[in-house]
């Protein structure tokens, strides 16, 4: 139980399912106030009501399409106006479409860049002045092990997560003197509906099924680290070890793991 969460307002994007939904539950369970954002207002309404009924805390929700920058900016402005200062931002929203670059549709590439990168930059850029003014806050960016080790058919997705990791590392150094924590969460495959869009064939999901992370466990790990100085959360540990080896010997790893890399 993280006692630092109690009474804190925590904004969570991509909160209508998967890790985002569990993040909301664990924030509320530990006495925090979740502020939920996703495209599905109906789902958010149900989750918010259930959280308030179960944990006796306020839970707010806002419908927004994070791929629409103007809409997302307006929603963030509204949240800031209605809630004043926030205490934490968890940039959890993300999407993927796994394809060879030569076969990818531009609209899929553009949407991945908009949701995974631009919307994360937008939320951080708008909320950072509030954190700086109050002298505290925590920004958590959900990246991926793909941001450390790209594979075929995930070139664009991996590039977006490379961007998130780079942004997170630079930002951390900029604001650590101001009392603001910045954490990147680098995950392997998680058992969510993410792959329904990323790989509709289901082949990749079947190939990595035994390695998949539990979204409830991931969310608890993140919430337990809120308002503490945590540079990175890397799950699973063995995959993070592989990423480290890859950074030292990429040619060797690509030859040794080529068959596994091509399972998408």
From TrEMBL:
> Which SUPFAM superfamilies does the annotation name?
NAD(P)-binding Rossmann-fold domains
Pfam families attached to this UniProt entry: adh_short
Q: Which domain of life is it from?
A: Bacteria
Name a GO molecular-function annotation. oxidoreductase activity
What are the protein's UniProt keywords? Oxidoreductase
| GO cellular component assignments | membrane
UniProt key word Cell cycle: no
InterPro entries documented for this protein: NAD(P)-bd_dom_sf, Sc_DH/Rdtase_CS, SDR_fam
Q: Give the record's family classification.
A: Belongs to the short-chain dehydrogenases/reductases (SDR) family.
The protein's name: SDR family oxidoreductase
Q: In which organism is this protein found?
A: Halobacillus yeomjeoni
């Amino acid at each position: 139980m993280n006692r630092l969460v109690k009474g804190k307002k925590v904004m969570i994007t991509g909160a209508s399912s998967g890790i985002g939904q569990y993040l909301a539950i664990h924030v509320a369970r530990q006495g925090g106030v979740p502020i939920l954002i996703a495209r599905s207002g109906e789902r958010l309404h149900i989750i918010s009501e259930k959280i308030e009924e179960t944990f006796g805390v306020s839970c707010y929700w806002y419908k927004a399409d994070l791929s629409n920058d103007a809409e997302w900016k307006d929603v963030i402005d509204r949240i800031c106006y209605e809630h004043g200062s926030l205490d934490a931002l968890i940039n959890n929203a993300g999407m993927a479409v796994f394809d060879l670059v030569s076969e990818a549709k531009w609209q899929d590439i553009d949407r991945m860049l908009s949701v995974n990168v631009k919307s994360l930059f937008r939320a951080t850029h708008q909320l950072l002045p509030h954190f700086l003014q109050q002298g505290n806050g925590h920004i958590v960016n959900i990246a991926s092990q793909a941001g450390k080790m790209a594979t075929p058919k995930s070139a664009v997705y991996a590039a977006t997560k490379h961007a998130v990791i780079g942004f997170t590392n630079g930002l951390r150094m900029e604001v650590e003197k101001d009392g603001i924590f910045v954490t990147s969460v680098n995950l392997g495959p998680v058992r969510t509906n993410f792959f329904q869009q990323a790989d509709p064939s289901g082949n990749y999901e079947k190939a990595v099924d035994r390695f998949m992370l539990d979204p409830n466990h991931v969310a608890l790990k993140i919430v337990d680290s809120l308002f503490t100085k945590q540079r990175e959360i890397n799950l699973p540990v063995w995959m993070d070890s592989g990423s480290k080896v890859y950074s030292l010997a990429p040619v060797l790893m690509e030859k040794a793991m080529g068959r596994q890399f091509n399972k998408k």
